[in-house]
């Protein structure tokens, strides 16, 4: 989490805020969002 804080991430993007609960629940997820919106972190961080 220190690395994330050092990158100036202060709050999740929309795709992350919506995707994290799904990913943490163990369900499969498909996320569609623009390039650069944080999709990769929405499934890697949880």
From TrEMBL:
Gene Ontology MF annotations: ATP binding; nucleic acid binding
One Pfam family matching this protein: DEAD
Protein name, entry field: DDX5 isoform 19
SUPFAM superfamilies linked to this entry: P-loop containing nucleoside triphosphate hydrolases
Top-level taxonomic group: Eukaryota
Sections of the chain in a coiled coil: none
Organism (species): Pan troglodytes (Chimpanzee)
Domain (DEAD/DEAH-box helicase) ranges: 13-46
């Amino acid at each position: 989490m220190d690395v994330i804080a050092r990158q100036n991430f202060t709050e999740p993007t929309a795709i992350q805020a919506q995707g994290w609960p799904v990913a943490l629940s163990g369900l499969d997820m498909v996320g569609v969002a623009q390039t650069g919106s944080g999709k990769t972190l929405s499934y890697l961080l949880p």
